[in-house]
Amino acid sequence: MVTLADVARHAGVSSSTVSYVLSGKRTISEETRRRVEQAVAELGYHPNARARALAARRSYILALVVPLRADSHEPIMMEIATSVTVAARQYGYDVLLITNDEGPEGVRRVALTGLADGVILMDVGLDDERIPVLRELGTQAALIGLPDDRAGLSCVDHDFAAAGAMCADHLADLGHREIAFVGHTSDTRHDNPTVVGFRERAQERGLRFVHRASEGNYDSTAGTFARIFADRPATTAFVVQNDGAIGPLLNLLRTSGRTVPEDASVVALCPDRVAEQHTPRLTTVSGSYQDLGRVAVEQLLRRLTAVSRGEEPTDEQLLLTPTLTVRESTAPRV
Question: Fewer C-beta within 10 Å: the chain N or C terminus?
């Protein structure tokens, strides 16, 4: 079946331009209009009349695609979802929740039935399979997460590279020179932005570090802990980007005769509420999940406003600056 995206590629224009030509919502140059109409004729494209009719009116509902998986951190996901709902209501919109297990078809269903004016995708991956559906249907969307191809999209995420650099700076300022970075076994990418940011700053500051992974349980963390000290016995500080590994790591440090922070400093990349649950309370580098939801709503509404005025939406990519909160788990190297 020929799609709107096929027509756009054939005509050498954006999907939104094809939509404007077909709907008449915006003045398009005669040359561009002819190219689009010729592409429609050559490809035999037949737009969904019901979808076009539904798109002509506003529902004042935003669809939010929420990940509900075994490996997702549900408290964080719900915090973002709550923030989206609160921000949407401030602008007179309601929120329709779509679970991620519906995948691209869930996004397609919402777009074609006109249930929502736009879509907010959470937990966006580098090559997210839902994004082609948005482009194909010309659906306005805001993404929480940064895909590889961001053309025609508005996105917001934490600045993970800056977070990694903050961890390195904080520990370097305290005099630490041998540092271990403990991450997730599920994240084996060499381009993990947090690790990249940490590595680059560590090299600038003359730090030696080792990057090891844990499954987030006690046995896995114990194995990681043993390998770290076998390879780098002079390690005096840890950066942890794995909530499940924090408790086991603190316990392993205690049972090995190392006191936190006198003998080993620990910085965690985790929400503040997680940091406050541990003893000692953890120094953290973190970002606001409420801000992620709020910014995504504002980005989507700006796109919808532009379309309603017959204008091309502006693509926005925003990285939110993280915050370093110093607590009891870091101290100068003795």
Answer: N
Angle, alpha carbons 142-124-159 (nearest 5°): 85
The Cα–Cα gap between 147 and 23 comes to 29
The model's confidence at residue 178, banded by pLDDT at 50, 70 and 90, is very high
Bridge partners of residue 324, in order along the sequence: 285
Is the Cα torsion angle 88, 89, 95, 100 positive or negative in sign?
Answer: positive
CA angle 45, 47, 53 (to 5 degrees): 165
CATH code for 160-287?
A: 3.40.50.2300
C-beta separation of 61 from 116 below 8 A: yes
Query: What residues pair up with 142 in beta bridges, in sequence order?
Result: 120, 154
Q: Which segments within the chain are labelled E, that is strand? A: 61-66, 94-99, 118-121, 141-144, 154-158, 178-184, 208-214, 237-240, 265-268, 283-286, 317-320, 323-325
Domains 4-47 and 58-157+290-321 share a fold: no
Q: What is the pLDDT of residues 149-175, one digit of tens each?
A: 888 899 999 999 999 999 999 999 999
Distances (CA, A) of 211 to 12, 23, 162, 182: 45, 53, 17, 6
pTM to 2 decimals? 0.78
Which architecture, in CATH terms, is 58-157+290-321? 3-Layer(aba) Sandwich (3.40)
What is the residue whose two structure tokens read 């870091």? 330
Q: Give the list of residues 6+ apart from residue 49 with CB closer than 8 angstroms, or none.
A: none
Closest CA to 182 of 231, 263, 233, 237: 237
Joined together, the tokens standing for residue 54 give 């539904």
Dist. CA 209–CA 190, nearest whole Å: 15
Best CA proximity match to 120, nearest among 149, 137, 97, 104: 97
Query: Which token pair is 81?
Result: 């979802």
Query: How do residues 286-305 score in pLDDT, each as one tens digit?
Result: 999 999 999 999 999 999 99
